[in-house]
Structure formats: structure tokens, C-alpha cells
Design brief:
This protein is an alpha/beta fold. The protein is 49% helix and 13% strand. The longest helix has 30 residues. The radius of gyration is 27 Å and the shape is globular. The two termini are 24 Å apart. The structure holds phosphoenolpyruvate (PEP) and magnesium ion (MG).
């Protein structure tokens, strides 16, 4: 965190999604969220005390206002209940203790206040006197009001209540479900205190093109709803109260970035073919029907990964077969003349789908996720399979199972697919008889048995987001170990090479839809490894296409050969970077 010009303050975090936005902050808190805690500098003390005093004044005014309303509506006697609340706000012992603890511990005032109040409530509760117990409820009420004022929550708690398009959302953390809501609210940008680049939340945020930063420690208590902020998703900077010169500087930067994007516009209708004539299919990853428009806008050759679990988020009842059918059919129709690879539900892990009631697990990434969940709930799974089979009539749809770990799982999934076909046949409902079926290769056991798996599928799609997580044993959502989440780990590169060889030996095609496909530094390596397709977030299509068009396959193959032999991730990355810089340095800036 650094200070800038007069009144301006800069915070820094992990850049998650590119873009610059300027607007009002909206502090979003989950109702059950903990009050943030952070150390403060001695010179910040007056500011914290002032925040506390202002919150007391505002809370007092709020309670008096409620009292007045109640008095005029139902009488002064009932309004007097709030006297007890006022007494809490005025309680000198409590106020003194907050101020003393603040000076002694140098922690943010919300945390100090919360702790002091909690101690108070516990003591009153433990005395066991019914009258004093009643007071605990009054104190709790005041506590909530005070915290709301100190944290700037005002009356807007839920994302649902946010007005469309006008805010930059600031939160402790955001779930994939929150993110979908943010998209529907057309928010300008997001910043959070925690979160990692490889989480599903980050992936969907990038895919939806919402400029964002994660990992800004203490941001929720440093900025208040309504404050003016500027967010730079390229560098991961959030500027509170930006000065005119700063706005000017960022205005120019945004124009420059736009100019680069406009130049890329010209290649929209071209194909991703290397200089020496190799065509690699470049398709798009999507999670929502609404994104299909961007597939065409950015010049992708279809949808390489449709993450259907997003259809199941933010609702209490899962979508019916009919609703799923309509959705898949629309996606496929709108993607024409290209095709869509529909991945069956990958719920679990960091994507909690409430309507599916997954049990809370100790270790969700290794738990009942994706195909495992579906195989344990065959009726649920068959609904989705039936919907896909039906939607694939007269459209170009392929089916993809996530997180297959071995042949037995694949066969069980295919048996349910067969059952669904038989049922549809008996019911006289039209469906696609020759649906192509593929699997994600994202678990090391699948990569290591790819030769066997290739015998029974039509295609592979490598999911490096999980393949890295499971190969290097690094939780993709844990930012503490994000430095170990290594896309050029020699083990990963060798696994990719093995899987590509296994696919081609069997004559099936193979794509890659993990985030490394969007990493422009690695494009030469992925081409050289022999992948037939890369599937990336829609907004990144033009850049990757330009990179492919700047490369020649001979160089890429030599790079891949050297990388497979390399001993360290740094050596591989260095080789990739030198080729990328030589061929398209302007895209790396
Ligand atoms: C992957 O694991 O690389 C992938 C594309 O799937 P997801 O990110 O949805 O887990
Ligand atoms: Mg995955």
C-alpha cells in the first residue's frame, strides 16, 4: 500500500482481469463475514478514533430517527425500548475500553470495537440475570449499526440490491456465484482482500471481462461505499480519491490499450494459422449464454468449453431437463457455423452449487466433484445428458466429461449416456445418435493412462488448471502457495506431451482449455507440443490469434523438444519468453 498525491491513496494487489475503470465503490459483505482485522500505524490512530466517533454520532442519529418514527406510529411507550440502545452508544466504560485497546494494540477500530463488545456480551450473558441477558440483544443491535457505519456498508448488503453498471465492487472475497450476479449487474470492476488467480472466480471474472484485483489487504475497511476509486486491472492498483492528473494519466493509458485492441480487430475474420501454414483451432471458453456474442465478436472458431455449472448457480432448484435443453440449443444455434463443446456439470471444489446440496467436505478439490458427483446422482446426471443429446439434433454439439480419473469412470458415464439414449428412443424424442464424446484430462492418473482412455473417446481436452493443481499438489485457490502453481513445471510439460502423443497415436484430436492457453508467453510451446486446439477466454482470442500468426511451427517444435528435456520451470519459461519477445513483443507489454 502506498500513498499518492494529496488526498489520493494507492493500494496494490494481484492483477486478475485487465482493464481500467473509474467509479464509486460498493462495499459488499456476506452477512456472516468476519469483521476485517489489520495492524495500523501510530499515525493512523487519529483517523481510526475519528471513524469511531463519527460512527457513534451516526448510530445515535439513526436510533433517534427510529425512535421518532415508532413514537408517531405506535406511541412513545414502545419507542422508549430504544433508550437502552442509546445508553449503549453513550456507555463511557465501553467507549473508554475501545479507545484504550485501540492505542494499546494498534489494530483497526472495527476489529477492536467488535472484540470489546463481544467481551461485554459474554460477561453479561454469563452473569445469568434475565434482565442483563436482554441487554445483550440491545448491544448486539448497536454493534451491527456501528460496524455498518464504520465499514461503510450503509443499507446495501446484497449484490442483488446494487444498481446496474454504476459501481466498483469491493469485497473480502467473491464466489463464482457472486461473480455471475456481478455480471448481471454490469459492475465496472471488482477488488477483493483474498483470492487467487487460478480460482474459478478469477477465471470467470476474466472471461466476463470485469477489470479486477484480488489480494488487497484491508481494503474493505479502508474504503467506504460511495467513495471515488480508480481501478487498474493491468497492474493491480486501486487508487482511492484519484487526483485529476491521475485520472488524466489513466485516461491516456486506456486510450492506448483501446488502440491496440482496435488494431487486433482487423484480424478478427482471419484464421489462426502460423507463418508456415499450420492451422491451430482457436476457440472460446464460456460459462454463460450471454457470452456467445463475444465468441463471434472476437473471431473464435466456436466454443471449446462451455462450463455448464454456471447454469446451476444462484438458484434454489436446479434447472429442469427442458430448461437445460433450451439453453444448450440456443448456445449451439448462436455459435453456428461453428460447434460447441458442452462440459457436463463440474460442481464442487471451489464451485459450491447450493441447489445440488453438496455436503461440506474436508477437502473439496479431492472430493465429490464434477463427474464423481454426477455418477453418484445418476438421475440428476441423466437429465443433463438427455438435454444435451436433444439439443445436439441439427446443431454441432460435442460432449465433454470433467475430471475423469480412469477408464472405469469413463465407462460408467458412457453407460448412463447409453441409458439416456435408450430412454429417449423409447419415448420417441429426437436426439443425436452420433454424439462425439470427449474427456477432460485434468487428473494425473488420466494423463498417465491416456493411451487406454484414447481407445474409448473421440477427443481429449487438457484442463491444465486442475492438472497443475493435482500434479504439483498445490491448491489452486490458496494464494499462500500461489508461487508453487507453476504452468511451466517440467512435470506438467511432460504430461502434456505424453497425452498429445497418446491422442495422436489413436488418431483422435486434442485441445487444451486451461488458463495457460491464454498465456501469450506460452503460445509457442503449446503449438510445438502438437495440440490441435486452444480454447481461451473470449477477450483473449485476438491476441492469441495474432501470436499464432507471428510464429512458425519449426521454431515451436524445437522449443517443445528442448522444454521436454529441461530440468527447471525457469529454463522453460525463459526459452518461451525469448521466442515470444522475438516474434510479438508488442503483445507482451
Ligand atoms: C481446467 O481445469 O483447466 C479447466 C478448464 O476446468 P476448470 O477451470 O473449470 O476446473
Ligand atoms: Mg478443471
Amino acid at each position: 500500500m502506498q500513498s499518492g498525491g494529496v488526498g489520493e491513496y494507492s493500494f496494490h494487489g494481484i492483477p486478475i482481469a485487465e482493464g481500467i475503470c473509474h467509479g464509486k465503490a460498493f462495499i459488499y459483505r456476506h452477512e456472516d463475514e468476519q469483521t476485517p482485522i489489520r495492524q495500523i500505524a501510530l499515525e493512523d490512530l487519529p483517523q481510526e478514533i475519528e471513524k469511531f466517533e463519527m460512527a457513534r454520532i451516526a448510530t445515535r442519529a439513526e436510533i433517534l430517527g427510529i425512535q421518532r418514527k415508532i413514537a408517531s406510529a405506535i406511541g412513545a411507550k414502545d419507542a422508549s425500548i430504544f433508550e437502552a440502545h442509546l445508553l449503549v452508544v453513550e456507555d463511557h466504560t465501553l467507549v473508554d475500553e475501545v479507545l484504550k485497546t485501540l492505542e494499546r494494540e494498534l489494530k483497526n477500530v472495527e476489529h477492536v470495537f467488535d472484540r470489546v463488545v463481544e467481551r461485554y456480551c459474554r460477561t453479561l450473558h454469563d452473569i445469568g440475570d434475565p434482565f442483563l441477558r436482554e441487554r445483550v440483544a440491545d448491544i448486539e443491535d448497536v454493534r451491527r449499526r456501528m460496524l455498518r457505519h464504520m465499514l461503510g456498508k450503509f443499507h446495501l448488503h446484497k449484490l442483488d440490491e446494487i444498481s446496474k453498471g454504476s459501481y466498483i465492487v469491493i469485497a473480502h472475497s467473491l464466489s463464482p456465484a457472486d461473480t455471475v450476479l456481478l455480471y448481471t449487474k454490469a459492475v465496472l470492476g471488482c477488488a477483493t482482500e483474498v483470492g487467487s488467480r487460478n480460482s474459478h472466480t478469477a477465471i470467470i471474472i476474466r472471461s466476463l471481462n470485469i477489470p479486477s484485483i484480488f489480494g488487497i489487504i484491508g481494503i474493505c475497511s479502508r474504503v467506504r461505499t460511495g467513495d471515488e476509486i480508480l481501478l487498474d486491472g493491468y497492474r493491480g492498483s486501486l487508487i482511492h480519491n484519484p487526483a485529476v492528473e491521475t485520472l488524466d494519466h489513466y485516461g491516456k493509458l486506456a486510450n492506448q490499450k483501446e488502440a491496440v485492441e482496435e488494431r487486433l480487430e482487423s484480424i478478427r475474420n482471419t484464421l489462426s494459422i502460423t507463418r508456415d501454414g499450420f492451422h491451430i483451432i482457436l476457440s472460446a471458453n464460456i460459462g454463460l449464454l450471454a457470452e456467445v456474442e463475444d465468441v463471434h465478436k472476437n473471431g473464435a472458431e466456436g466454443v471449446g468449453l462451455y462450463r455448464t455449472e454456471f447454469l446451476f448457480l444462484n438458484r434454489s432448484i436446479p434447472p429442469s431437463e427442458e430448461e437445460q435443453y433450451q439453453n444448450y440449443r440456443l448456445v449451439a444455434q448462436r455459435t453456428k457455423p461453428y460447434g460447441v463443446i458442452i462440459r457436463t456439470v463440474d460442481a464442487g471444489g471451489d464451485k459450491t452449487v447450493e441447489s445440488l446440496h453438496p455436503e461440506k467436505e474436508q477437502n473439496p478439490s479431492l472430493g465429490c466433484r464434477a463427474i464423481r458427483f454426477c455418477l453418484q446422482h445418476p438421475n440428476f446426471f441423466k437429465k443433463q445428458l438427455r438435454a444435451i443429446l436433444r439439443a445436439a439434433v441439427e446443431t454441432n454439439i460435442r460432449l465433454l466429461y470433467p475430471m475423469i480419473s480412469g477408464i472405469t469412470e469413463l465407462r460408467r458415464a458412457n453407460a448412463l449416456l447409453k441409458e439416456s439414449q435408450t430412454e429417449l428412443q423409447e419415448e420417441g424424442i429426437p436426439f443425436q445418435q452420433n454424439l462425439e464424446v470427449g474427456i477432460m484430462i485434468e487428473v494425473p492418473s488420466a494423463a498417465l493412462t491416456a493411451h487406454t482412455l484414447a481407445e474409448e473417446v473421440d477427443f481429449f481436452s487438457i484442463g491444465t488448471n486442475d492438472l497443475i493443481q493435482y500434479t504439483v499438489a498445490v491448491d489452486r485457490v490458496n494464494e499462500q502457495i500461489a508461487h508453487l502453481y507453476d504452468p511451466t513445471h517440467p512435470a506438467l510439460i511432460r504430461l502434456i506431451q505424453m497425452v498429445v502423443e497418446a491422442a495422436h497415436a489413436r488418431g483422435i484430436w486434442i485441445g487444451l482449455c486451461g488458463e495457460i492457453a491464454s498465456d501469450i508467453r506460452l503460445t509457442p510451446l503449446l503449438l510445438g507440443l502438437g495440440l490441435d486446439e486452444l480454447s481461451v477466454g473470449t477477450s483473449l482470442i485476438p491476441r492469441i490469434k495474432k501470436a499464432v500468426q507471428s510464429l512458425d511451427m519449426g521454431t515451436c517444435i524445437s522449443l517443445a523438444k528442448a522444454s521436454v528435456q529441461a530440468h527447471s520451470s525457469a529454463a522453460i519459461l525463459e526459452k518461451c519468453l525469448s521466442i515470444a519477445k522475438f516474434h510479438y513483443s508488442e503483445l507482451l507489454a
